[in-house]
Specification:
The protein is of the alpha+beta class and 141 residues long. 40% of the residues lie in helices and 28% in strands. The protein contains three helices and six strands; from the N terminus they run E-H-H-E-E-E-E-E-H. Strands 1-2-3-4-5-6 form a six-stranded antiparallel sheet, with helices on one face. Helix 1 packs antiparallel against helix 2. The longest helix has 25 residues. It is elongated.
Length: 141
């Protein structure tokens, strides 16, 4: 079994802050009334912070790769989830993203920029995502 550590990266925090700041700036410099601009900016910042907090609680801190291609996730609270489905997003040297669905229908968003982990670790992560094979359960017949 291969364990891939996925530490929280500084570049992800900077990118999300930049997106929220850019959106707020665009709203504040729009032609709408000042009260609407302020309200929309506050809603954007509050909603962005709530979504970011939710993402950080669900962001995997580790990926467990079995020799047969099966994947598991380690969440920040220490829980381990076996992955039943993997929907690939972007799997390139600069970014690896996927939506991982656990056996209990838990949805986990995996988003790892290339600058967040060493090159070798990012390569192993991309290889594990592409080579994912869900474990077959024996059914009737």
């Amino acid at each position: 079994m291969l364990a891939i550590d996925l530490p929280r990266s500084r570049c992800t925090r900077l990118a999300t802050s930049a997106v929220l700041l850019l959106g707020s700036t665009l709203i504040l410099f729009s032609q709408a009334q000042w009260s609407w601009r302020l309200a929309c900016t506050l809603v954007l910042l509050a909603g962005g912070q709530l979504l970011l907090r939710h993402y950080r609680r669900r962001q995997p801190v580790g990926l467990l790769v079995q020799p047969d291609g099966d994947l598991g996730c380690v969440l920040p609270d220490g829980r381990r989830i076996r992955i039943a489905h993997c929907q690939l997003g972007i799997v390139r040297p600069w970014l690896a993203s996927a939506r991982l669905t656990g056996e209990g229908a838990e949805c986990i968003e995996l988003f790892v920029p290339g600058c967040a982990v060493p090159r070798r670790v990012h390569w192993e992560l991309r290889r594990a995502l592409i080579g994912f094979r869900p474990r077959r359960t024996s059914g009737p017949g």
